[in-house]
TrEMBL record:
Residues 23-113 form the Carboxylesterase type B domain. The keyword Glycoprotein applies. InterPro entries: AB_hydrolase_fold, CarbesteraseB, Carboxylesterase_B_CS, Neuroligin/BSAL. Residues 1-19 form the signal peptide. This is Carboxylesterase type B domain-containing protein. It comes from Euphydryas editha (Edith's checkerspot). Keywords: Glycoprotein, Signal. PROSITE patterns: CARBOXYLESTERASE_B_2.
Length: 146
């Protein structure tokens, strides 16, 4: 009975550890929380979108060189869609102007990078397999042979 409870707890622990999370990266400006997406060919990639790289060029900053953004506190949600810069809409026959002046954002896409916690979960998974094998070997009569 005790063995069954231990194995059940280990399985629950494994499921919690290996649950898919979001990519989180620490940068010189702060922590980014992105998202995973798949390419057309099905390859998993990490995406960090709408990352500000300069103070919005509005008001007194309009037509001035970009001012670097200040570091932020906490975690920046890098899974939003950033506004496009002011431009004519190339898809309409009218000379419609679309976009915003506040548009100095980066979108970064990289191969799947996972998190440090994902690497740790592989290690923990390996330890759980070894631990489970050791529990099974304790039940083996050859181990307890007199």
């Amino acid at each position: 009975m005790f063995r069954g409870i231990v194995l059940w707890l280990l399985n629950v622990f494994f499921v919690v550890i290996c649950a898919e999370s979001v990519p989180i990266r620490e940068t010189s400006l702060g922590v980014l929380e992105g998202y995973y997406m798949k390419t057309r060919s099905g390859r998993l990639i990490s995406a960090f979108t709408a990352i500000p790289y300069a103070v919005p060029p509005v008001g007194e900053l309009r037509f001035m060189p970009p001012v670097p953004v200040q570091p932020w506190e906490g975690i920046l949600n890098a899974s939003k869609v950033a506004p496009i810069c002011v431009q004519r809409n190339p898809y309409t026959r009218q000379k419609e102007i679309v976009g915003q002046e506040d548009c100095l954002y980066l979108n970064i896409y990289s191969p799947y990078i996972g998190n440090v916690s994902n690497i740790d979960s592989v290690t923990i998974f390996s330890i759980l397999i070894l631990f489970r094998k050791n529990i099974n070997s304790l039940e083996n009569p050859k181990v307890h042979a007199s």
